[in-house]
Amino acid sequence: MTQKIFCLGIILITLNIMPVIAQHSHDHPHYHHHPREVNFPDIPGYFTMSTDLHIHTVFSDGSVWPDIRVEEALKDKLDAIAITDHLEHQPHQDDIPHPDRNRAYEIAAEQVDKEELIVINGSEITRSMPPGHANAVFLDDANKLLVDDAIEAFREADAQGAFIFWNHPSWLRQAEDAVPPLSEMHLKLIDEKLLHGIEVVNMHRYSKKALQIALDHDLTIMGTSDVHGLIDWDYDVHHGGHRPVTLVFSEEYSKQGLQDALFKGRTVVWKDDLLIGKNEYMVPLINESLLIKTGNYLDGTSVYELEIENITGQKFILKNKSDYTFHHHADVITIDPYSTKRLLVKTIDRLDTIHLPFSVMNAIIAPDEYAIVKFNIDVN
Ligand SMILES: [Zn+2]
Ligand SMILES: [Zn+2]
Predict the structure, then answer these.
(1) What pTM does this model have?
(2) Per CATH, which fold does 37-277 belong to?
(3) Which of 181, 218, 273, 346 is the most exposed place for a label (fewest CB within 10 A)?
(4) What is the dihedral of CA 93, 99, 102, 107, to 10 degrees?
């Protein structure tokens, strides 16, 4: 997040010429962002780094040159991307022969100023099930993963210090019932610490079973675009859509910090209007995203007025879990991106402290479980 400060000047200049931004701007000018920018706050102790670690180019079965991937990521204000072309699936090889499987990464990396975007070398190990497809990211040399035996490819990636995750486990071509086929081979890979994460979200897919596998086996919860065409077309960016991203909570703002955080499982995935992640990272993320503005009792009443400001591009759907009801709203309230909600709480008696717990209906912390946030307001 801190890196984004460098870009603030540009954002402020574009404000004058882009009326679409002005819609969000009149109340709280501090949080102006272009709607497509991925923008989540840091959480206590960690930088929040937005990433897409599953991306294809013409160097496997994608449709674009690697520089376009960099441009897309800059428009989305991501902090890091990994280029992960298929090692074994090379449909463009006759037109674009490339003996060096690091080349797509190198071209992308040459495009960027390191301050702007971290580009990571990766590869998609592309095998039939099991083990199916897996991404190895933070590779030194992708060429060394071109070996016959799938497990040996995982071993080589691991030897290079790579973070390895199971891709699209509910992909119909490898799971006809859309249930991730967790096999003996996967369990062996997990057991030998050769598999570190799993895509709970891939493209438009969300897998509840994959989330359960992540929690059962302590795998890092991942969400990626797996883009082959264009982000703007695949994710309807011009109508408010966004690619799936993995928010990574990193002790330092660097490639190394990001890698460490992935191994430690510090992630929350953002897909459409959903957040998916472990409770210990989800709750701080929501607490930093929704700012409570203390208000006051309306004159001569026991109705307390407060405002909740959402400083992110994520819509939050809150379900009231308190003992009180609201004067204007039912028990489910929605706080739109970059907006402020005024809430009137009927406390019946005038209180010194008001406790307002909410279940966040679009923040999934386990199958059928939603994050609970508690706002404690001191009345003065
Ligand atoms: Zn794949
Ligand atoms: Zn892929």
Answers:
(1) 0.91
(2) TIM Barrel (3.20.20)
(3) 218
(4) -70
